């Protein structure tokens, strides 16, 4: 542990060549040993408690799922009667027809996704000579020492030094972020340029400054709480060389702090599904819908074409201060460019460890999703690019339906709970057992079985603890605010 190392010089008095122990030094030494022992014991106990809690949660998850499946089997007659009652009413029948059609579409779309996934292959890195010049932009706000670690990981990349420009921009932080940027500057010298915004103006404005200062053919944006692997940058930018129409590339985001708490473990499984499956499919259609803030690359010429519109973007008359990554992706797609995903370009990023931070993050993403779906509707059904547009339109329809059905399904859920609470519980847990099995198997195949079962727990949390996010995001889509940027 840093700062707690004990050396022989602390044990023996320097005045006694014979090595006679000084009483005061000995007492200090004993205090230090006790302190270290206490720290180690505390950590061991903490990890033991976490492990026990995780085990209990997983066991509780399976108890709920299999209990729900058993109840669903026992209540078969009740389910049939419930459905008959719905079919005998106009509203109920209409809802069942819509729900059935939606289920058929989602199932067909899922099968289509599986086929596309197996066809997907990431583009291999091009040679050093072929690699383009890049400007890596790291905007930071209240990140503390994490920004130092981010910058160190970027400089450690297997990327030609003469082809990389690294810019770090402190967006008026209230903590010691600027200090750690200066420490990185001392360590890295000319390898990094650091800038400090006069006041906090938001991530979009920090990126805007970086775009205008950048000289690279490709802009790479990395969140300041993220760590990139050595081959990440070269893999990320290689599609721009192999595909002249490529306007942006999304990186593969995984969770950095997934050993610290339960929520990051769940989110890690969710991220793998979201990136390695869903974005692989979107990449096959040339239409990755969102290049993540944690790691994304943009062709500089495409950025400058939409930069004025992007920095001045508004929603309901208010400046947009969220969803800068989704907005940039939309504007580049609108130019007729393809947006791809590189599964072999990894970044590890911190995620919320508490429910409060989690729902705030999801609200921000939900509001951005609503806003940018409205924007995408303006061009996705036009002749916006030469290549096939069917895939882009199908992806849009799928996402639009998820938003459009948020309120009908919320109302149905509340009705179902009020009329038949036991049937709701039984069907919901049985449904989760079936639906969440695919993410479990997918994660197990890609990264091992030990953590994969968290997909079941996450599905329960989302169904019962986060179901309100999308309806709330729709109702408050015009609200501003990052929600999770301030100090704890």
Automatic annotation (TrEMBL):
Concerning InterPro entries, the annotation shows: Nucleotide-diphossugar_trans
SUPFAM superfamilies named in the record = Nucleotide-diphospho-sugar transferases
In the Enzyme Commission scheme, what number(s) does this protein have?
2.4.-.-
Give compartment(s). Cell membrane
Keyword set, alphabetical order: Cell membrane, Glycosyltransferase, Membrane, Transferase, Transmembrane, Transmembrane helix
Principal localisation: membrane
Pfam families xrefs: Glyco_tranf_2_3 (PF13641)
Membrane spanning segments where?
53-73, 93-118, 394-417, 423-443, 455-475
A molecular function (GO) term? glycosyltransferase activity
* Presence of keyword Ion transport: no
Please verify whether the record's keywords include Transmembrane helix: yes
In Swiss-Prot or TrEMBL terms, this protein is called: Glycosyltransferase
Q: Which taxonomic lineage does the organism of this UniProt entry have? A: Bacteria, Pseudomonadati, Bacteroidota, Flavobacteriia, Flavobacteriales
């Amino acid at each position: 542990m840093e700062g707690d190392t004990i050396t022989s010089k602390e044990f023996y008095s320097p005045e006694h060549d014979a090595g006679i122990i000084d009483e005061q030094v000995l007492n200090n030494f004993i205090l230090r040993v006790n302190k270290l022992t206490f720290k180690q014991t505390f950590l061991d106990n903490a990890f033991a408690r976490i492990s026990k809690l995780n085990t209990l949660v997983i066991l509780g998850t399976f108890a709920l799922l299999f209990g729900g499946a058993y109840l669903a089997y026992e209540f078969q007659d009740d389910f049939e009667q419930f459905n008959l009652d719905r079919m005998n009413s106009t509203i109920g029948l209409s809802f069942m027809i819509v729900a059935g059609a939606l289920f058929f579409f989602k199932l067909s779309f899922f099968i289509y996704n599986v086929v596309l996934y197996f066809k997907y292959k990431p583009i291999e890195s091009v040679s050093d000579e072929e690699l383009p010049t890049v400007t890596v932009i790291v905007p930071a706000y209240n990140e503390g020492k994490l920004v130092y670690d981010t910058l160190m990981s970027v400089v450690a990349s297997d990327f030609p030094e003469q082809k990389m420009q690294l810019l770090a921009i402190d967006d008026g932080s209230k903590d010691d972020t600027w200090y750690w940027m200066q420490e990185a500057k001392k360590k890295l010298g000319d390898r990094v340029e650091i800038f400090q915004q006069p006041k906090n103006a938001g991530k979009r404005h920090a990126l805007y400054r970086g775009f205008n200062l950048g000289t690279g053919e490709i802009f790479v944006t990395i969140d300041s709480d993220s760590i990139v692997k050595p081959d990440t940058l070269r893999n990320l930018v290689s599609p721009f060389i192999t595909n002249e129409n490529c306007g942006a590339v999304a990186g593969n985001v995984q969770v950095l702090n997934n050993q610290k708490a339960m929520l990051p473990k769940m989110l890690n499984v969710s991220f793998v599904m979201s990136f390695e499956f869903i974005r692989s499919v979107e990449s096959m259609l040339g239409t990755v819908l969102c290049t993540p803030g944690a790691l994304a690359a943009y062709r500089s010429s495409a950025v400058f074409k939409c930069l004025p519109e992007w920095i001045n973007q508004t929603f309901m008359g208010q400046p947009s201060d969220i969803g800068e990554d989704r907005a940039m992706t939309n504007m580049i797609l609108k130019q007729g460019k393809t947006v791809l995903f590189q599964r072999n370009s990894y970044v590890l990023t911190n995620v919320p460890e508490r429910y409060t931070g989690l729902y705030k993050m999801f609200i921000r993403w939900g509001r951005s999703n609503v806003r940018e779906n409205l924007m995408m509707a303006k061009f996705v059904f036009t002749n916006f690019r030469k290549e096939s547009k069917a895939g882009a339109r199908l992806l849009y329809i799928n996402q639009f339906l998820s938003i459009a059905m948020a309120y009908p399904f919320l109302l149905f859920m509340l009705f179902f709970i009020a009329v038949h609470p036991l049937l709701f519980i039984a069907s919901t847990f049985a449904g989760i057992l079936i639906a969440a099995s695919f993410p479990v198997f997918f994660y197990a195949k890609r990264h091992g079985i030990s953590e994969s079962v968290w997909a079941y727990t996450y599905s329960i949390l989302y169904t019962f603890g986060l179901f309100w996010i999308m309806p709330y995001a729709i109702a408050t889509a015009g609200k501003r605010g990052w929600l999770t940027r301030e100090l704890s």
